[in-house]
């Protein structure tokens, strides 16, 4: 069974989440380029959130590479120096998470303001949710930094001081965080319900915005798996896992409503590539069959040894004599029929095939 505390699992997980979020953010900016729209504040907010995710992933990689990937049971085996370093890294990761998830939330609120600003009541609700989100950001940062007095007592057990109960602090801040996520996910469905759109379009838009509720699901899972007040030690590695997962889900969900132009562009490019490859295979097959037919015809003319060469020479001599006797009329007629069709008239009924020649040229140009 794989555990997140395993070194290889930690490295793979952190690199994978960064690459996925990088792809999503890149698609978001590509959508701006496809629509020829300027980069707005909601885009820059998600960039800040992505930078925080990269910092969190860096913490996870450092922990894995320096042997600090311990479980709740093996944490007491760390030396004092390792313990102090691990707690400092954990505090840094929490701060990065708080800033990152807040700016992902700000990105969604700014996007809502740009899309649904026609309703004054909705704009007022946005400002209220935005103000609460900013207050949560400031409070969470202050509580994380000053959870112990003096501050150094948070990671150095040798320093006497007074500290808050970290489990209670975590539970209270995470519950507020969850309520904010639920409010933000539910807000656009109220406006969409009143739009004059077909029911199918309303459902599609609502589902797209409700996908952001997955961030709330990760919040609930984080509370369930990391809130253990009855245990004497804190699961640092498990907390790192859930912090990274929640932040990466927040980035992806914040970008989902903006990705349609780039996804349509990718689907169109994929269809074009498949069509080109199909036509190329068809062309290669046709040329191969034509080559086989030509080789077979040559083989029939060739016969065996010099006898075949004599027949070929006799065939060319016969055609030359016919041309000398009858003139070049037969050759010109053949040329007009096979090459000049559609652009010249041979005086025969060959020009009735002219539309077919034009049709073939059009088919080739389309492919």
From TrEMBL:
It is a multi-pass membrane protein. Keywords: Membrane, Transmembrane, Transmembrane helix. It comes from the Eukaryota. PANTHER family: INTEGRAL MEMBRANE PROTEIN-RELATED (PTHR33048:SF47), PTH11-LIKE INTEGRAL MEMBRANE PROTEIN (AFU_ORTHOLOGUE AFUA_5G11245) (PTHR33048). The keyword Zinc-finger does not apply. Residues 27-264 form the Rhodopsin domain. Belongs to the SAT4 family. InterPro entries: Rhodopsin_dom_fungi, SAT4-like. The chain crosses the membrane at residues 12-31, 43-63, 83-112, 124-149, 169-191, 203-225, 237-259. It holds the Pfam family Fung_rhodopsin. It is found in: Membrane. GO terms for cellular component: membrane. Residues 281-303 have a biased composition (Basic and acidic residues). Residues 277-314 are annotated as: Disordered. This is Rhodopsin domain-containing protein.
